[in-house]
């Protein structure tokens, strides 16, 4: 199944949680913040949410800026 | 002691620095350390899975610096509010440098959207530091909405042109009930000193440090500029006038009869 990950379509395994996806992508959940279908997901909830086909996920982090 | 107080929190340094555009994290850290800054701005962007980057936050000691996330990239109030909430969810204190810049060429802030976003974010408990054009009326509206500072620009972001908005900044300072932080366009320590001499409470610098051949040394230079300007302001500058006024006595000349 596919989700929209940071604006582009991405194939992911079925019934995977956000936390599992982050782990697969080698993203440290302490260094990112996640928006699922336009709602911010608290860090402790990442392992509770199972992704669905067509979901939108934004994974954001801090970068240098003025 | 001469402290900068923003939203009840005191700071010794009156120089805030941005963390963008540095050639390396080491250069950024050198500039931060040289500047003596206690407030550093950061931006929020999508993670790039294909080009994993070193985490920026590993290089910024949270015990030493207050992280001030900006809403750069926001084109309207809604996007800015979304970014501010994401920053808070990421674990930052609820401070935000609010910037809404729909125009990619001059990056001038949208006053209407900035005010709208400020009203919402203040209600949500954010400490809002809005980046604005040097518009005294807008600055008043924002202060009435409860922002913690106003941050008028000296010149467009990254232009290094200095205080092109000087006269309007003077009016903003005269009328301000919150700290005035001159942000954007300051390209040299003399520009920062000039803002401080006028009575600005602080300045924010990024590009001038990031593009310097030696960012650490430029951080030191800006720190000195800000300190000199602040001390001169507190000491009391003389008035400008058109006619000369002799510094030496006008009596006892050798040619006196």
Tally of extended strands of chain A? 5
Round the mean pLDDT of chain A to the nearest integer and report it.
93
N-to-C SSE series of chain B?
EEEHEEHEHEHEHEHEHH
Number of individual domains of chain B: 1
Account of the protein in words:
The complex is a heterodimer of chains A (66) and B (257). Chain A has 66 residues and is mostly beta strands. Chain A has one domain (2-60): Roll (Ubiquitin-like (UB roll)). Helix content of chain A is 11%, strand content 36%. Chain A has one helix at 18-24; strands at residues 2-5, 8-11, 33-36, 39-41, 56-64. Chain A has a five-stranded mixed β-sheet, with no helix packed on it. In chain A, a hairpin with a 2-residue loop joins strand 3 (33-36) and strand 4. The N and C termini of chain A lie far apart (39 Å). The mean pLDDT of chain A is 93. Chain B is an alpha/beta fold and 257 residues long. In chain B, strand 7, helix 4 (136-145) and strand 8 form a beta-alpha-beta unit. Chain B has helices at 25-35, 77-89, 111-123, 136-145, 166-175, 189-197, 207-210, 215-235, and strands spanning 4-6, 9-11, 15-18, 39-46, 66-69, 95-98, 127-132, 151-152, 181-183, 202-205. Chain B has a single domain (4-235), classed as Alpha-Beta Barrel (TIM Barrel), CATH 3.20.20. The longest helix of chain B has 21 residues, at 215-235. The mean pLDDT of chain B is 95. In chain B, helix 1 packs parallel to helix 8, helix 2 packs parallel to helix 3 (111-123) and helix 6 runs parallel beside helix 8. Helix content of chain B is 35%, strand content 16%. Strand 5 of chain A pairs antiparallel with strand 4 (39-46) of chain B, so a sheet runs across the interface.
Overview in brief:
With 66 residues, chain A is mostly beta strands. Chain A has one helix and five strands.
Key terms for this structure?
heterodimer, A: 66 residues, mainly beta, Ubiquitin-like (UB roll), five-stranded mixed beta sheet, 5 strands, globular, B: 257 residues, alpha/beta, TIM Barrel, five-stranded parallel beta sheet, three-stranded parallel beta sheet, 8 helices, 10 strands, 35% helix
């Amino acid at each position: 199944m596919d989700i929209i990950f940071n604006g582009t379509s991405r194939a992911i395994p079925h019934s995977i949680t956000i936390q599992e996806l982050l782990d697969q992508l080698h993203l440290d959940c302490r260094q990112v913040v996640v928006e699922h279908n336009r709602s911010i997901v608290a860090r402790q909830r990442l392992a509770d949410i199972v992704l669905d086909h067509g979901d939108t996920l934004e994974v954001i982090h801090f970068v240098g800026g003025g | 002691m001469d402290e900068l107080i923003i939203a009840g929190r005191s700071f010794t340094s009156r120089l805030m620095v941005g963390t963008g555009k540095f050639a390396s994290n080491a250069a950024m850290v050198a500039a931060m350390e040289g500047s003596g800054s206690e407030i550093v701005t950061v931006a929020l962007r999508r993670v790039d899975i294909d080009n994993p980057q070193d985490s920026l936050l590993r290089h910024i000691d949270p015990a030493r610096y207050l992280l001030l996330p900006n809403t750069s990239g926001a084109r309207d109030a809604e996007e800015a509010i979304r970014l501010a909430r994401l920053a808070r969810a990421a674990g930052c204190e609820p401070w935000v440098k609010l910037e809404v810049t729909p125009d990619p060429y001059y990056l001038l802030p949208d006053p209407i959207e900035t005010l709208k976003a400020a009203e919402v974010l203040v209600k949500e408990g954010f400490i809002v530091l809005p980046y604005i054009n040097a518009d005294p009326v807008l600055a008043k509206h924002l202060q009435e909405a409860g922002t913690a500072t106003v941050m008028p620009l000296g010149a467009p972001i990254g232009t290094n042109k200095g205080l092109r908005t000087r006269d309007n900044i003077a009016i903003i300072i005269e009328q301000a009930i919150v700290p005035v932080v001159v942000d954007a366009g300051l390209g040299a320590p003399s520009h920062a000193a000039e803002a401080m001499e006028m009575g600005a409470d602080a300045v924010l610098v990024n590009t001038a440090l990031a593009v310097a051949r030696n960012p650490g040394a430029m951080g030191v230079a800006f720190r000195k500029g800000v300190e000199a300007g602040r001390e001169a302001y507190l000491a009391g500058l003389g008035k400008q006038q058109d006619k000369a006024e002799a510094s030496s006595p006008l009596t006892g000349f050798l040619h006196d009869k």
